[in-house]
Amino acid sequence: MEQNILIIGGNGLVGKTIARILQSRNPQFNIFIGGRKGGKTNKDLKIDVTDPGTFTTISDHKINLLILSVNDKSDQILQFAIKHHIDYLDITKPTPDLVKAYDITKRNEINSRIVFSSGWMGGIVPGLVNAISDNSDAEEVKLFVYYSVKDKAGESSAHFMAENVAVPFHRYQNDQPVSIRHFLDTESYDFSFGIGKRSAYNFDVPDLYIFNKVERVPDVSVKMTYNSKFITWLLGSFQYLRIFNILSLKERKMIFGSSGNGDQSVFEIVVKDQEGYKKLSLQSTKGQAELTALSAVLHTEELIRNPHRNKVYFSHQLHESLALLTQLNSYETINIKITQ
């Protein structure tokens, strides 16, 4: 069967990277790029997530799979995919938007594969937890994120932080939500790959919701640190003094909107299960855009090559966990360490 894949938001940083990796690994796929302005080739399609009138191009080109790499706050692409029985993979949603979209699927009959892949770095963290815990019941999961301001960054992550930095969110303790705010509650953590000890602060990613509500892990937390200790301290001070509350959205976007020329991206997972503590450390030497895009590609390949039933998935549920770990570890710019 011919595979026609449309990457909506395909002109953005992550979208372009998905297209590059997917085409290099699967030259037989027909990959279309969707953007608000269209493009110069017959593979460039004009599609605007805020204008359903542009969605007819999806049917016109017999698209089998929609990859959403731009934020669709109104979930119009999701609803189009459900209505027209088209496979759908979304890598963009912050936690509140993910919860809203997931609720939409519960109210509809699903006749295609609807995949939410908005967890950290393309939704791979829960799959890696299952890989290192030998499918034992995890009692606690901690995710530590190292973020470099030198790394290339797209607009969506910066906009999310600008919009939500002053909004409380939840971690989970004893299976109960605990209200917290970004960049508070410091925890010292010794990062791998030569980074060393850093102060890490609260950070909201959809994995908090996914681990507790989907995987039923009672204790879940996420902390992050910047490559610059000064920036990490400064953001914590701004939050502690509630300066973010009085800044305009434009001013907050200026704070979070910087993008460098490229740097490593690192995250570490600490899992407590019945056998004790285990840790997985992952480094992407080409940064977060490369890793997020690779994750989206692995989910896409899994959807196309294996007969998954029509229903709603979180992306890690598509994979056999050890196979996911192996595929990531074999990619030339990714390094993984596992310790117990």
Automatic annotation (TrEMBL):
SUPFAM superfamilies: NAD(P)-binding Rossmann-fold domains (SSF51735). Gene3D superfamilies: NAD(P)-binding Rossmann-like Domain. InterPro entries: NAD(P)-bd_dom_sf. PANTHER family: CARBOXYNORSPERMIDINE SYNTHASE. This is Saccharopine dehydrogenase. It comes from Chryseobacterium phosphatilyticum.
